[in-house]
Amino acid sequence: MNIFVKKSFLYTCLCALLLISCKKEIEKISDTFKDTSSIESPAEKQDSIKKDSVVQKESIPAQMKDNGFYGAFILPKDKKLRDSMFSVFSKQYTEKERYAILALNRLDSKNKWNADTLVVPVKIDTTLMAYSPFPMQLDVLSPVKKFVVFSYPIQAYGVYSNGSLVKWGPTSMGKKSAKTKTGLTFANWKKKLAISTVSSEWKLPYNFNIFNLDGIGWHQYDLPGYPASHSCLRLLMNDAKWLYGYADTWVLNPGGATTKAKGTAVLVYGDYKWGGRKPWRKLLDDPNANNISVEEMTKMIEPSIEKILQEQDNREKVVDSINAAKAVLEQMPQTPKAIEP
């Protein structure tokens, strides 16, 4: 009986040892598979890079079926790949087309590196007019000779002459901690090169003041693809220069103490969706995502139209009066200079 018990005990121990040994071996094999499966072979790694490259290249330019739709130009985070993609971007599009694409993304050439995705229209209109978020015609503005509107929600400006949209473009308005003042205002004074009151290092080409006491105006400065200014309305250089020549300044009384007439009417409205998706990115889902309806624009302008027309009429009278006075002075005979003996 004792011999039988001893044999059974020995047999049990032997089986246990075999099971433990097998378990350890299985674990080793399992670990080996885990390690090797997580490491790509050089060939697999190369194939992976090739596949990624193909995916990137296929997205440039985006293939869309209908005119008016947009595609995405994806930019990788890796610097070398990013440089390569911008090289493709430069070869794919002309200088004017690149300018238009960046403008649609609220960027200038200097700040294009800020983008991780560029919204690109299938058919590029270098004037941007084909992509205007503003209505092409506003009857409420028909009697208004010049009108400029800045939209905070979509970071864009529009220019109307007698109700017809003549120009629009991108802007970068006040950041969240220094929002741009909104409401109806009028263009005041202008200066080809102003120096910022915030920092003397900031040069502001083609500066046009619209809120005099607040020191707020539009001018050329960096467009980084989001609201970034210290309350002013940043523009591309070409746009700042164009608006500098387009808008009318105020007319001051002799000595400059009071205003005889106001300049071009300007409306700044709305607020930016801070922390949300950039408005122009929505064009990838809906080409009309940024469009402002005639009804919406009319509703915003109508309460101020009487004031706008009143100031326009006053300015015309003041300018006519000044021109008439100049004409009289020009017709007056010049006093001959006394001849010295």
Automatic annotation (TrEMBL):
Family membership noted in the UniProt record: Belongs to the YkuD family.
Keyword Cell wall biogenesis/degradation recorded: yes
Highest taxon of the lineage: Bacteria
GO molecular function, one term: peptidoglycan L,D-transpeptidase activity
InterPro entries, per the entry: LD-transpeptidase (IPR050979), LD_TPept_cat_dom (IPR005490), Transpep_catalytic_dom (IPR038063)
A GO biological process held by the record: peptidoglycan-protein cross-linking
Pathway: Cell wall biogenesis; peptidoglycan biosynthesis
UniProt keywords, alphabetically: Cell shape, Cell wall biogenesis/degradation, Peptidoglycan synthesis, Transferase
Active site annotation, chain numbering: H219 (proton donor/acceptor), C232 (nucleophile)
Entry GO CC: extracellular region
Record-annotated L,D-TPase catalytic domain positions: 146-269
CDD domains, per database record: YkuD_like
Protein known as: L,D-transpeptidase-like protein
